[in-house]
Amino acid sequence: MAHAKNNFRFEDLLDKHHLKKTGARLRVLSMMHSKNTATSQPDLETLMSDIDRVTLYRILNVFEEKGIIHKVFDLNGTANYAICHADCAENHHHDEHLHFNCTACKNVYCLNDLNMPRLTVPSGFRADAFTIYASGLCPKCNKKSDKAN
């Protein structure tokens, strides 16, 4: 039953952004929503082997353009994608939250609930957005590390 509820929400999201409700788009949204970490295109390709690489690339590209997902880079420079909050809009993301890279499991987490510092830039500059990264151990890997010590 929860699956149908999620599909309805995702269909509304696609409608809001004037996108066709294709099975592939709905599945990508569902897969990304089910994960608590940002996901790379190669990982999505592995999880969704029936969607070809080009189609997946186009889906991720249009979702990013429309403000449905945002891109965050991991410690290796690989692009990962996470679902945006409601205040993102077409070609204008509001992803000013901490992106945490776990050095053990290599997962990337969007930590949305932290208070971010106010950004001030020198005169003449205009900051439209900013990204803050942190690296270390996620709770799961930190717990494993504590047990090993």
UniProtKB/TrEMBL annotation:
Keywords: DNA-binding, Repressor, Transcription, Transcription regulation, Zinc
Domain of life: Bacteria
InterPro entries tied to this protein: FUR, Fur_C, WH-like_DNA-bd_sf, WH_DNA-bd_sf
Similarity comment text for this entry: Belongs to the Fur family.
Protein name (database record): Fur family transcriptional regulator
Lineage start: Bacteria, Pseudomonadati, Bacteroidota, Sphingobacteriia, Sphingobacteriales
